[in-house]
Amino acid sequence: MNYISTRGAGIGERHTFSDILLTGLAKDGGLYLPSEYPLVTADELARWRTLSYADLAFEVLGKFCDDIPAADLHALTRSTYRAEVYRNVRAGEDANAITPLTPLGVENGAQLSLLALSNGPTLAFKDMAMQLLGNLFEYALAKHGQTLNILGATSGDTGSAAEYAMRGKAGVRVFMLSPHRKMSAFQTAQMFSLQEPNIFNLAVEGVFDDCQDIVKAVSNDHAFKARHRIGTVNSINWARVVAQVVYYFKGYFEATKSNDERCSFTVPSGNFGNVCAGHIARMMGLPIEKLVVATNENDVLDEFFRTGTYRVRGAAHTYHTSSPSMDISKASNFERFVFDLLGRDPARVLQLFRDVEEKGGFDLAASGDFARVREFGFVSGRSTHDDRIVTIRDVQARYGQIIDTHTADGLKVAREHLDPGVPMVVLETAQPIKFGETIREALGHDPQRPAAFEGLESLPQRFEVLPADAARVKAFIAEHTGA
Ligand SMILES: *Cc1c(COP(=O)(O)O)cnc(C)c1O
């Protein structure tokens, strides 16, 4: 399998999965994709239907990382996708399923179900990919005798998923910046209670943007970055995207009775990483009818899929909502889909994303390209705070389930795209306990806490307070990497 950039650099060069594993952007600023999507045969689809999650992951990922010896890859998927790791199940769920499917009911002739992606250590779907990434990084670094220092900024979710994936991993250190005293008590405790010596929580005296600016400043110091082997684990990392392809297969097998059926997926979306994996599963030949992109009030993606206009938002028009993990102003993985939509024309992709930087967006409505969006199965919708409250109440009353705010956005939009006889799977991206304030507003009480999280806030915490100053952060990293 060879990987190419969406902007054309490296065409004619060879990049294996291992070559791009530890990188983010390609050197021309584009994103990596396979030079062609591997297709799934009918025989494979039949055989895969009954596999465990770990064995299914081995089969799907094997098509994308043929440079990793099969026995090694199989060991990696089996150590990642275990019931002990994805153990935060709710009543009625089987931890062995890893991503259990819960049927809700039939609406407009369509069976509506929730696919739980949030039973991992941090109760959000980012664990699905990040846990694999931790094991892949450890494996690849050991093979080449290398080390890596991951630097990141978080306002909550991504940082904790990264820390829980990398804790105790040989060859990896994590330096995670977060705004001091600005995260919820639950999020703070989740990250700061980690005692592994390779995890460094840096509480920055400032806001999230200060943390991000520091990460940018450190990353732009190329000499420092090279000397201290600084890397990132952001959502454009190809391995993260491809790990998410697996649960579309799993969800399809759970929601349908035979491979002659089609099913649809609704995906609460922000950076377009999750639904991009659904697009890839469909390109591989998985019988997906619709891919429904659900946004909150930050509706950059909904606007595109309705109108063909992609218009990124400035800070003043990026809203803080009650589904905060979808509060994005531009979707960092969107370029991967645009590349396919335009028939994989890197010169046009380069031009369009230059327009994004220079003019704030582009419009594909006038060219014939936008019409093809439906051929790729995409439709969309948006949801607001009031919709979330109504949906959370309704799902509790009708089906006895408590869903989180992001999943509520998904369910609200899924209901606008049901087709009789086509099962609709809504991806559940987080557990409600993470967004307790909105659940209290909707239902008047707190959601139940998974057993492993009892008393979380009273555990001892390990963190370092630093001023919002890139030089001080660099000094801290230098001191703790010994280079
Ligand atoms: C990250 C996240 C999303 C958005 O996923 P993208 O891959 O960025 O589209 C949705 N819900 C939750 C809970 C998340 O953490």
TrEMBL record:
GO terms for molecular function: threonine synthase activity. Its EC number is 4.2.3.1. Its cofactor is pyridoxal 5'-phosphate. Residues 98-345 form the Tryptophan synthase beta chain-like PALP domain. InterPro entries: Thr_synth_N, Thr_synth_N_sf, Thr_synthase-like, Threonine_Synthase, TrpB-like_PALP, TrpB-like_PALP_sf. Residues 2-81 form the Threonine synthase N-terminal domain. GO terms for biological process: threonine biosynthetic process. It is an enzyme of class 4 (lyase). The modification N6-(pyridoxal phosphate)lysine is found at K126. Keywords: Lyase, Pyridoxal phosphate. PANTHER family: THREONINE SYNTHASE FAMILY MEMBER (PTHR42690), THREONINE SYNTHASE-LIKE 2 (PTHR42690:SF1). Belongs to the threonine synthase family. This is Threonine synthase. It comes from Trinickia dinghuensis. The lineage of its organism: Bacteria, Pseudomonadati, Pseudomonadota, Betaproteobacteria, Burkholderiales.
